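Feature request, filed as a ticket because there's no other form

It would be nice if the structure record came with a short human-readable summary line next to the tokens. Right now we just get the raw output. Example of a typical job, pasted below so the devs can see what we mean:
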Amino acid sequence: MADQPGWECDTCRIKGLEKTRNCAWLPVHDPAHNKAVWARKDVVVTACPKSLITPASVEIVERYVAWKWSGEMDLLSLPAKLTDGILALEQESRKQVQNGQ
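Raw output as currently delivered:
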């Protein structure tokens, strides 16, 4: 696995790493690719994590931050998919706090 902070899309393409890192933006992206390209604790991905980020996932992260800053507003007023994302991020955040990170 490569150094994550060095994962710049243009640099990656210039070096020809998009196939090795199984970039989801490739026209011939291999969804059956089973080699880990990034891992942290119990999370492993087999495609470049940057290429898995969608506008919807960015929105969920932004809304999670707003939810935390707002004093944790009522989740029942939000769409289910957004609520699921916020709760997943909160669960991961609490795991990190419990592990002293």
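Something like this underneath would help us a lot:
The chain has two domains: 4-52, 55-98.
The mean pLDDT is 82.
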